[in-house]
Specification:
Chain A is mostly helical. Chain A has helices at about 5-15, 20-40, 50-60, 70-100, 120-135, 140-150, 155-160, 165-180. Helix content of chain B is about 40%, strand content about 10%. The chains are: A mainly alpha, B alpha+beta.
């Protein structure tokens, strides 16, 4: 039980979808463990890409046994959600520190802090824009989660969400330009 | 940029965007203008997004494409600046020959990852210290083999050192018979990796095994062998020993390409091996991955005794690591020739240990007997036996070993003053140099000037590699002339395959070796004047 990877592996193989609430915190823990390992090995200041983190976590969980499509889907969606939370949490904390008048760069011990940083403001703006988008198109959020937070490719995203690759690409095109304009970017 | 749109408006925006995006650019504006029932702010937002979509990479992409944040591929960088690059993908051949061991790997598709511009497609092999992955270079559109240092050795300086060494040896040995190393890189987690040509083809070992009888493809196998000899002559000229020559380590492609692979045990002459001799036993970074059946002496050993017993010289089998020179490779070449001629390598035994004992004791009589009974060309048998001499002084890296020497000696091949080496001079560089003739004297061989340049560079490298060694200073004077040393090993085939050599063939085999210190582009030519 102490090893989240083991527990996740069992959950993924159980074939039950209802495990989501149980899965998320475990995945969250596991991602932090992986991040911690990296953090201790790497130079200070070095950041970690979410993609690498998620993929390594996946390999640790599944070893050489395929948990099947449902298992994969659950794992990557949960990971994406976990990464998203970690990033938001981190952005909020940074914001607080900044508003508290402290120096902008502070040594952060938290393992999650090793994640490749988005500019804090962007994370928050992204969240807002995504919330708006989700109301109009429920798969938009999933696509962003897979493509961005879990760092999956178009093909992998299509596989996980069970839609065509073409559809992922079309929607992604819309989503990224929508977010770009929301983040105040003007056409070149 | 835009005022906040409600869910319905966003829905409409989405439809509009997709509708317009499907159209060719120049038709979009007209189409949008036709959409009368759309609110102006939605239209404006749509136009802005379409423009962003055409604008190439933007800040948002850098935010949204975490995989490419740090290492956009070259093509992505070029495309980010505007021009769309149409990739070329040549028809592939031999696809079946690059098996990925873990192709059916669980969720492989989902965990496909990228290292720099390489898409990792699976694992080809796994050694004690490194992993060989199959990668795809996205920019150049070609498959590569990637060697990655094992995670558990990521913090061991000796392992890293050896790993880099292997990459450098492979990178600096530039010969058609040697798998080129393309690039040395660092993964995201700071582990080094290097990429190489992905060799497609089958091993000489498996081809030899498939023979119905010994006469099948005899000439072709000898031609493969000659190419291996040429390759090794080149490596030796650069003071690199392979130390694990065997048919398993020779890849033969469908178009006649012959490549010597697995330089994981290679040694640079004149360079102390602190990381290995002292720190055996798991010294090889990538222990031979293509090793076939186990337990019969055909798998590679690492440690103070390295190599493959059935093809191993006595000195190598006794673990005399520091004393090894090119003649150890010559022995292995002899064992390979022996296998081509008789179907069996130099030694045979029930287990690796047995074979190793035979090798250490130089128990070669059975091999000699097999050779004698093989019915092969007596000259080839003679060469094989000479290569398999227990005492390395007797192996044919020296002039006295060439039975046809006098016949082949060009009239004016007198050694330059001061360049002559005595045949008895026991020097490891001798064999390296002796077998290093690039046959530049032949009119149909590659232009002498290029090989001269290459060797000049080679000599600089090898000099720096051995600068610490006192021996290297004497070695650099060694110009081996036909007169006093036939470049035996590479010339084996050249020398013996043609019963009545023509003049061209003769001069082919007798070009002077370049002098490591003063190689001139005209070495080959002037020697004939």
């Amino acid at each position: 039980m102490s090893d989240p990877a083991e527990r996740i592996s069992i959950l993924l193989r159980s074939g039950e979808t209802a495990a989501a609430e149980e899965l998320l915190p475990l995945v969250y823990d596991q991602l932090r463990q992986v991040a911690k390992r990296h953090l201790h090995r790497e130079r200070p200041g070095q950041t970690l890409q979410a993609t690498a983190l998620v993929h390594e976590a996946y390999l640790r969980v599944t070893g050489s046994d395929d948990p099947g499509w449902e298992g994969r889907r659950q794992f990557f969606l949960a990971s994406a959600e976990a990464i998203r939370r970690i990033l938001i949490e981190k952005a909020r904390r940074k914001n607080r520190l900044r508003h508290g008048g402290e120096m902008e760069r502070v040594p952060l011990e938290d393992d999650a802090m090793a994640l490749d940083p988005l500019p804090t403001d962007d994370v928050m703006a992204l969240e807002e824009a995504l919330d708006a988008l989700e109301a109009a198109n429920s798969t938009a959020r999933d696509i962003v989660n897979c493509r961005y937070f879990a760092g999956l490719t178009d093909a992998e995203t299509a596989d996980i969400l069970d839609i065509s690759k073409r559809s992922v690409q079309r929607q992604w095109q819309f989503i990224r330009t929508f977010l770009a304009s929301k983040l105040g970017e003007n056409p070149a | 940029m835009s005022s906040d749109l409600g869910p319905d408006a966003l829905q409409r925006l989405q439809e509009l965007f997709h509708g317009a995006a499907e159209l060719p650019k120049e038709e979009r504006e007209a189409w949008l203008a036709e959409q009368k029932d759309v609110a102006p702010e939605i239209l404006a937002q749509c136009r802005a997004q379409l423009e962003l979509a055409d604008g190439g990479a933007s800040r948002i992409d850098r935010l949204l494409e975490p995989t490419n944040v740090d290492n956009p591929s070259i093509l992505e960088r070029i495309e980010a600046r505007g021009p769309k690059v149409m990739p070329i993908l040549l028809r592939d051949r031999d696809e079946s020959n690059a098996p990925v061991l873990r192709a059916g790997d669980p969720g492989k598709q989902a965990v496909e990852q990228k290292i720099d511009q390489y898409q990792v497609q699976g694992e080809i092999a796994r050694g004690g210290v490194g992993i060989v992955l199959k990668g795809h270079d996205v920019d150049l559109g070609r498959d590569v083999a990637m060697k990655v240092l094992h995670e558990e050795h990521a913090d061991r300086p000796d392992m890293i050192q050896r790993f880099i060494e292997e990459a450098q040896i492979g990178g600096q040995l530039q010969h058609p018979g040697i798998v080129p190393v393309y690039e040395l890189g660092l993964q995201a987690d700071e582990r080094p990796y290097f990429t190489m040509k992905l060799v497609k083809g089958t091993t000489l070992a498996s081809q030899l095994k498939e023979r119905v009888d010994l006469t099948q493809d005899h000439r072709r196998f000898l031609s493969v062998f000659e190419q291996v000899c040429q390759t090794m002559a080149y490596a030796h000229s650069r003071h690199v020993l392979h130390r694990d020559l065997k048919p398993d380590n020779v890849m033969v492609g469908s178009f006649g390409e012959v490549q010597v692979v697995d330089w994981g045990l290679a040694k640079v002459l004149g360079r102390p091996e602190q990381s290995r001799a002292s720190q055996a036993p798991q010294a090889s970074v990538i222990s031979t991955v293509r090793t076939g059946d186990t337990g019969k002496g055909s798998e590679s050993l690492t440690g103070s005794i390295m190599g493959t017993p059935a093809y191993m010289s006595p000195e190598q089998a006794r673990g005399e690591v520091e004393e090894l020179d090119a003649r150890a490779d010559v022995f292995s070449l002899g064992a390979m020739l022996c296998e081509i001629l008789t179907g069996k390598p130099a030694y045979q035994g029930d287990s690796s240990r047995d074979v190793l004992t035979l090798a250490a004791n130089a128990d070669l009589n059975p091999a000699y007997e097999r050779l004698d009974e093989s019915g092969a060309d007596p000259a080839l048998i003679a060469i094989a036996k000479q290569c398999l001499a227990p005492n390395r002084e007797d192996r044919p890296a020296t002039p006295r070993s060439s039975p046809n020497r006098s016949r082949r000696t060009p009239p004016d091949s007198r050694p330059e003053p001061g360049m002559q080496r005595s045949a008895s001079q026991p020097h490891d560089a001798r064999s390296a140099c002796c077998s290093s003739s690039p046959r530049s004297s032949s009119p149909d061989s590659p232009p002498a000037s290029t090989s001269g340049t290459r060797h000049r560079r080679a000599s600089r490298n090898s000099r720096s590699a051995t600068s610490c060694s006192r021996a290297s200073r004497t070695r650099t004077r060694c110009v081996v002339r036909q007169h006093n040393s036939i470049p035996v090993v590479p010339a084996i085939w050249r020398t013996f395959s043609t019963p009545c050599p023509t003049n061209a063939a003769a001069s082919n085999g007798v070009g002077s070796a370049p002098a490591p210190r003063r190689p001139t582009s005209t070495v080959g030519r002037t020697s004939r004047n």
